[in-house]
Amino acid sequence: MTKTNTFAAAIVMVVGLSALPVHAQERPDFSGTWTLDSTRSESAAQGQPIGPVTVAIQQSGQEIRVQTDRDGKHETVTYPLDAAQEPPKAVGTAGSATSRWNGDVLQTESMRSINGKAVMVRESRHLDRAGREMIVETSVEIEHGYEGAGDKDQAKPYITFKDVFVKAQ
């Protein structure tokens, strides 16, 4: 093959490759209504039995709004979606929330008040391949120490659990 033919073949190859679509990594869309599968969820087995849990999620390019209905109580947390945003390094105020993407996993953090105690709730959400199940790994950490019964050296100021939600039809 001559230099001219090699050069022409290289140009055709570059032009052909540049015509291929280039997609930015698409983020999963968690929008919809999700129901806790209590048979496969750890939070359903902690302490007192919980009733049905439903999570309604609205996701846009700027935020994700998560409304949780549990035991007749409603809680809504809105997380700004900013892939470059880092989680808070210091304790925030109750109601503050942040998020960041780690590949196709959405990691969120929010300060909440539970029974008058400040807690940090960290959640990692991802979808199964079909997008019909949402797996949520949660860590709840008491921010100002542990005030429970028993040996304080063995008490943990946090709990972790993994839940499976199924998308409603």
Helix/strand layout:
Elements: H1 3-18, E1 32-36, E2 53-59, E3 63-70, E4 73-80, E5 97-102, E6 105-114, E7 117-127, E8 133-142, E9 158-167
Antiparallel strand pairs: 1-2, 1-9, 2-3, 3-4, 5-6, 6-7, 7-8, 8-9
Number of domain units: 1
The averaged pLDDT comes out at 77
Strand proportion, as a percent range, falls in 35-45%
Helix vs. strand class:
mainly beta
How does CATH name the architecture? Beta Barrel
Outline: globular
Strand order of the largest sheet: 4-3-2-1-9-8-7-6-5
- CATH fold naming: Lipocalin
N- to C-terminal separation? 60 Å
CATH class label: Mainly Beta
Number of strands: 9
Number of helices: 1
Account of the protein in words:
- This protein is mostly beta strands.
- The chain has one domain: Calycin beta-barrel core domain (Lipocalin), CATH 2.40.128.
- It contains one helix and nine strands; from the N terminus they run αβββββββββ.
- A hairpin with a 5-residue loop joins β7 (117-127) and β8.
- The chain starts with a helix and ends with a strand.
